[in-house]
Write a structure and sequence with these properties.
Length: 107
Amino acid sequence: MVSYELMHGDTQLGTLTRYGIDQPWILCHFTAKLAFEEFRPLFEAEDAAARKVVEAVEDAATREAEDAYDKIYEAIEHLNLYLIGSDGTKIESMLLSIVDGEASFRY
């Protein structure tokens, strides 16, 4: 079983356990540690913004939704989160989404 530790500095935020791949995304179950609670609202906002992008039908609304999503995801990127794989691989640059015990990422 392949797993990844989600890290912020030296603090482990949770474990991602891979269950599938939907190219280019790696699909995982996410088990949060208490330290993740500080970051949960930002990931919930990222999910809500991503849903608005999908739901937007007018070009202007789509651009507005995409701009909102980009702003939220930029905040996530500035956290400098990284993954440590069960094989020791360190993944520092990725797109990461965490929602309700599920995570997906690509790098």
